[in-house]
Design goal:
Shape: globular
Order of helices and strands: HEEEEEEEHEEEE
CATH superfamily: Deoxyuridine triphosphatase (dUTPase)
CATH topology: Deoxyuridine 5'-Triphosphate Nucleotidohydrolase, Chain A
Mean pLDDT: 93
EC number: 3.5.4.30
Helix content: under 10%
Pathway: Pyrimidine metabolism; dUMP biosynthesis; dUMP from dCTP: step 1/1
Subunit structure: Homotrimer.
Family: Belongs to the dCTP deaminase family.
CATH architecture: Distorted Sandwich
Number of domains: 1
Strand content: 35-45%
Largest sheet: 6 strands, antiparallel
Structural class: mainly beta
CATH class: Mainly Beta
Protein name: dCTP deaminase, dUMP-forming
Number of helices: 2
């Protein structure tokens, strides 16, 4: 089952941590998360799964930044989240989708116990000017049945910013 907005609010500070949190971003069954001002863009193509891929940082100015189709922009949420005893999920807001902006390619599924900022895999269908602090996505929570094992991966847990792919670590085993 998916938690209602009122249930999300009830669990803030317990099973759910969202920092900063404001009731204004709470929806009937989700919570809106905002876009941080930093983005990463890979600088060398083709990308290689077996090695770290270099990326450069971009800052979204208050006046906006033009995103171009065919480019993958890695962003992150302004909010830090922690989720215990629930499965967090992330989806783009419909208003953002109606502008042709995608906020994740495949990584909208979180794990029980995830702690950190959400890395967003942003792409646009057509050129679009974006701004920092815009509510671009929403987090919602599923209840879990059965014994829980919390997420503890060293790749992305407790991140401090945008996380490029670390798939290359899987090849080091």
């Amino acid at each position: 089952m998916i938690l209602t907005g009122k249930e999300i609010q009830k669990r803030i500070g317990k099973e759910i941590v969202i920092t900063p949190y404001t009731e204004k971003q709470l929806n009937p069954n989700s919570y809106n998360l905002r876009l941080h001002e930093e983005l990463l863009v890979y600088t060398e193509l083709p990308l290689d799964m077996k090695k770290p891929n270099p990326a450069e940082k971009l800052i979204i100015p208050e006046t906006g930044l033009l995103l171009k189709p065919g480019v993958l922009y890695l962003g992150r949420t302004l909010e830090y989240t922690e989720t215990h005893d629930l499965v967090p999920m992330l989806e783009g807001r419909s208003s953002i989708g109606r502008l042709g902006m995608l906020v994740h390619v495949t990584a909208g599924f979180g794990d029980v116990g995830f702690k950190g900022f959400w890395t967003l895999e942003i792409s646009v269908i057509q050129p679009l000017v974006i701004y920092p602090g815009v509510e671009v996505c929403q987090i919602f929570y599923h209840t879990v049945e059965g014994q829980i094992t919390e997420y503890s991966s060293g790749k992305y847990q407790a991140n401090q910013g945008i996380q490029p792919s670390m798939l290359y670590k899987d090849f080091e085993k």
